[in-house]
Amino acid sequence: MPAAIRRDAPSPISLSDRWRGWRDSLLASASFQRWAAAFPLTRPIARRRAAELFDLCAGFVYSQTLAACVQLDLFETLRAGPRDLAALASRAAIPDAAMESLCEAACALQLLERRGAARYGLGPLGAALLGNPGIAAMVRHHAALYADLGDPLALLRGHDRERHLAHYWPYALDHGGAALTRDDVAPYTALMAASQPMIADVVLAAYPLAGHRCLLDVGGGDGSFLAAAARTAPQLRLQLFDLPGVVGIARERLAQAGLADRATITAGSFHDDPLPAGADVISLIRVVHDHDDDAVARLLAKVRAALPEGGVLLLGEPMRDMDGGSDGVAAYFEIYLRAMGQGRPRSAARLRELLSMAGFSQVRVLRTRIPLIASVIVAKS
What we know:
By secondary structure, the chain is an alpha/beta fold. It has two domains: 16-130, Winged helix-like DNA-binding domain superfamily/Winged helix DNA-binding domain (Arc Repressor Mutant, subunit A, Orthogonal Bundle), CATH 1.10.10; 134-380, Rossmann fold, CATH 3.40.50. The chain has 16 helices and ten strands. The strands form two sheets. It has a seven-stranded mixed beta sheet with strand order 6-5-4-7-8-10-9, sandwiched between helices. It has a three-stranded antiparallel beta sheet with strand order 1-3-2. A hairpin with a 4-residue loop joins strand 2 and strand 3 (119-122). The N and C termini lie far apart (49 Å). 31% of the residues are buried.
């Protein structure tokens, strides 16, 4: 076999790889680390890197500190003002010393603040969490994720084992969804509803819907995004498409919001059924990243078929590699969706490719206020 195509032939080493190899060997050197920590010009960098590495090691403890605070409703308890340690411990049925450990850990993470001797109040992050109830809902549901990550190598190797997160999102196991009952879909539908306000604020600020006449929200859950859209665009007709077990929840939610006469709700699965026609804008809000490329390609083709010429697809979800976003989007969703059993976090460039393959044109990536929460792409049919 010619050397140029031998499978075992070494790949040529680029200048970039040579530089990175030199950098890596330097950073791995204990003597260099000691020098960098002592030298005045490199000391701030060394300290920052040490703190970042420590945060990676301690991250699970951080997340469990937050989980304990959420499970105890500690932030809600402190909404009215600071409380004594003894009162917090009594309310939580936790010994004083253990409660002090939790509160001190929460102070270190800016979730709480010390307000005198043995007295605690809200910290800046704890107060911010109160304004975003969807975060607490996300923290509560992470118990399923942590169960799947108890043995991360077994998860990555695909060993046959119970997947708690897939059961939390049952459409990952039953794509058609015809057999899923209201009880099956209620937990994840409630989670999506709790977190939808902050997503809707970001998406609708980036792409106002005042110029459209009818919005179809595919995978619209309980209708929270439609309700938010309706408040910003009073002229808008509303359509929702979701699994049979979900649409009953949506009817109740939209009726309670006084939107029953503006909304048409259709039960079905985008895997098996065509999308309803009649909308000039179709939204996919936190839907695409839950599915693999082949399912996404089919979904986008159905969206394209349901839109009139010049209609708009509005796609909103966290995307990797976004300016002003965070590499944490990729780190989190790569493992989260692996535990769920399907889907991938995608870059805007990859989504452009999928949209182009489906026949969309004039694909635009819009700036959002908080890319970490959601980025937005709009495309014309």
